[in-house]
Design a protein that fits this description.
By secondary structure, the protein is α/β, with parallel strands linked by helices. The strands form 3 sheets. It has a 5-stranded mixed sheet with strand order 1-12-11-7-10, sandwiched between helices. Strands 3-2-4-5-6 form a 5-stranded parallel sheet, with helices on both faces. β2, α4 and β3 form a beta-alpha-beta unit. α3 runs parallel beside α8. The model has no long low-confidence stretch (mean pLDDT about 95). Bound molecules: 5-phosphoarabinonic acid (PA5). 5-phosphoarabinonic acid (PA5) binds next to loops.
């Protein structure tokens, strides 16, 4: 079977939607020079600065073997595997697990699961940790603490809770149940790892959180729940090979970046809805949302010019959200691009039995499969969007497996890097997240001088008025 993912952009184009609502060949041609420059810039910086992630498919042979060794031990030893992390240190592991493992993985008997039960605790909802402790048994649990900065309050607060509980219940030897994934020198977690002798994997330089799925951040959890991480990396390399051309018609990620640039910057399509038609890809939409939002939402260009850049990503799920969001997509404002993800071959076939012959509207389903039904509904939605002249495109996955998933993730990462170039912004920082972090620390009374400015700014804010609180 053909294993390459494909990008079908027919419904983005004026040939299908007309020139008021679709992108013309002239618009594309006018972008070729900028597209080539974007491709050259990304390629020239491969492996440098924050583009270290581009090398991950090639430079991890040794580390992958070590991960496989540790993962084999985890699978043989533990009944529960818990990731503590947030944002880029959690969304990839969640998306990959959902995509490649059984949809009710944790409910399967151990004999049918390729690894321990899997949990990712990516929030500090006070009820969450209590709920986790209700379903795991501490002596049988491996905790994987993932934080690049080694300082994220959410993750480190969870670390404190978990290590205290482990020490109390397991006693000596508690540290053997912890795997740390962090920077090799910066932050607190690496110090704690050295002090306590945790099994440790490093997040390489030049790999930011949202670009970290192909390094130990993603590979350790994936391998511990039985996923073929070499196939994922091979998929990423295969996509990388397709991104070597500066001709957008030969480089799918470049074409994607250019189309989204034209759609958002020139035609007001400020929202991109990621709409997979597969439960397995549900959380790929979450992963994409962070990648696109945190990378491209910026208020200053590289030359210092103020801007308000970034197309807003949104997530939805086919067919479920046909019964929720689709009305808006078809008839609401012309401000969206809908990106379908279509799966050609599902891993199961569900036959619909014949029956209810007296009800024609039900009986016609008999003898079909859910496979034909979901694709027919996807095509129906695509047609409705086309009729309503709504830009849409389809990423086709021949099958969801580790190899095609590696391609998909690398494709979206490359498209994001190119888009950053086209927008002339820094796609690899996140200063807007820092403001809220500083304010939180100031609120919590952290007396470190670096939070003084935040504290002062916040006390200078006008007092809330009772009349606006009902
Ligand atoms: O993409 C990013 O950089 C962020 O989402 C981070 O991954 C997130 O803030 C967690 O940071 P850390 O891994 O340092 O704990």
């Amino acid at each position: 079977m053909e294993q390459n993912i494909r990008l079908d952009v027919n419904h983005m184009m004026a040939d299908m939607l007309g020139s008021e609502h679709g992108i013309t060949k002239e618009q594309l041609a006018a972008m070729q020079e900028a597209a080539a420059a974007a491709q050259h810039a990304v390629e020239a910086n491969r492996g440098k600065g924050w583009l270290g992630w581009m090398e991950l498919p090639y430079n991890q042979e040794e580390i992958v073997s070590k991960i496989e060794e540790v993962a084999a031990h985890v699978r043989a030893t533990y009944e529960y595997f818990v990731v503590l992390g947030i944002g880029g240190s959690a969304l990839g592991p969640i998306a990959v697990h959902q995509a490649l493992n059984h949809l009710h993985y944790n409910e399967l008997p151990a004999s049918k699961r390729p690894g321990p039960k899997f949990y990712v605790e990516d929030n500090i909802d006070p009820e969450r940790m209590a709920a986790l402790f209700d379903v795991i048994e501490l002596p049988k649990t491996c905790f994987c603490i993932i934080t690049k900065s080694g300082a994220t309050a959410e993750t480190m607060s969870q670390y404190l809770i978990v290590t205290e509980a482990l020490k109390a219940e397991v006693g000596e030897g508690w540290a053997k149940q912890i795997i740390a994934v962090t920077d090799h020198e910066k932050g607190n977690l690496i110090k704690l790892a050295k002090e306590n002798g945790f099994e440790t994997f490093f997040i390489p330089d030049g790999v930011g959180g949202r670009f970290s799925e192909m390094c130990p951040v993603g590979l350790v959890p994936a391998a511990c729940c039985g996923i073929d991480i070499r196939a994922m990396l091979a998929g990423a390399a295969a996509m990388d090979a397709r991104c070597k051309s500066d001709d957008m018609m030969k480089n799918p990620a470049l074409l994607e970046a250019v189309l989204q640039y034209i759609a958002s910057e020139q035609m007001g399509r400020n929202v991109q809805v990621m709409l997979p038609y597969a439960d397995s890809l549900k959380y790929m939409a979450d992963w994409f949302c962070q990648l696109w939002a945190e990378s491209l939402g910026k208020n200053v260009k590289r030359d210092g010019t103020p801007c308000h850049a970034g197309q807003t990503p949104a997530k939805a799920l086919g067919v479920t959200d046909q019964h929720s969001q689709l009305q808006l997509y078809n008839e609401g404002p012309f401000d969206k691009v809908i990106t379908f993800i279509k799966v050609e071959n599902f891993r199961s076939e569900t036959k619909i039995p014949k029956g209810c012959e007296e009800f024609k509207d039900v009986a016609f389903l008999g003898g079909m499969t859910h496979n034909t039904l979901i694709e027919a509904e996807r095509q129906g939605t695509e047609y409705a969007l086309y009729v309503n002249k709504r830009m849409n495109q389809t990423i086709v996955m021949p099958e969801v497996n580790a190899y095609t998933l590696g391609q998909l993730m690398f494709f979206l990462e490359m498209a994001t890097a190119y888009e950053g170039e086209l927008l002339n912004i820094d796609a690899f920082n996140q200063p807007g997240v820092e403001t809220s972090k500083r304010a939180t620390y100031a609120i919590l009374g952290n007396t470190d001088a670096k939070y003084d400015a935040a504290r002062q700014e916040m006390t200078g804010r006008p007092a809330f008025k009772a009349e606006y609180i009902l």
